[in-house]
Amino acid sequence: MELWDINTSAFRSINDLGKTYSFLDPVFYTLAEHSVFLLAFAVLCYWFTRRNENRMMVISAGISFILAEILAKIAGMIHYNSQPFAELPDVHQLVQKAVNNSFPSDHTILFFTFCFTFWLFGKRFRLVWLLLACCVAISRIGVGVHYPFDVLTGALFGMISAIFAYKFVPGALLTQKLLAIYNKAEQAVLPGKDKAKEM
């Protein structure tokens, strides 16, 4: 069996679930389209704890996302496939989207760079974050806008970039200096208990 056949067969196995079990449609749709707000809220909460460790984690996640997106752009120049709903018949499509290159999945990259970074930093509920990233990746298949290989590649890029950022960003002198400048400025504007130095 060729890779393309494996890809489409795996897509059908997940995407067709919504046809059989209609209660999955709102689950897939919510995860695919609205879970990003939960991630954004978590990032803001971590940042405004005013702890250096949490802020360095958020910075690392942001840089890892940029790195992963660079990898994604390079991969997109090497390989192209449109969304499943544009290439396959009878796709269970729950999200309206313009037809373009769906390889790799940007949503999956976003969630795996941030959630895997949370896992690397050993945050509470770290396994929940990884589970959320996996669920979002699956939901992108469930709503009909990505193939399994799209999300697997996005997850791989996200994790590789997160590991790289985790190893090099917190110890970088430039990162530490910029964060110290920000902390000082924030303390001047929003005085209060300074947790920035607490680890």
From TrEMBL:
Species annotation: Brevibacillus panacihumi W25
Gene3D superfamilies: Phosphatidic acid phosphatase type 2/haloperoxidase
Residues annotated as transmembrane: 27-49, 56-82, 102-121, 128-149, 155-174
Cellular component GO terms, alphabetical: plasma membrane
Keyword Nucleus: no
Keyword Cell wall biogenesis/degradation: no
SUPFAM superfamilies: Acid phosphatase/Vanadium-dependent haloperoxidase
Identification of the protein by name: Bacitracin ABC transporter permease
Keywords: Membrane, Transmembrane, Transmembrane helix
SMART domains per UniProt: acidPPc
InterPro entries: PAP2/HPO, PAP2/HPO_sf, UPP_Pase
GO molecular function: undecaprenyl-diphosphatase activity
Pfam families reported for this sequence: PAP2
Domain Phosphatidic acid phosphatase type 2/haloperoxidase as annotated: residue spans: 61-166
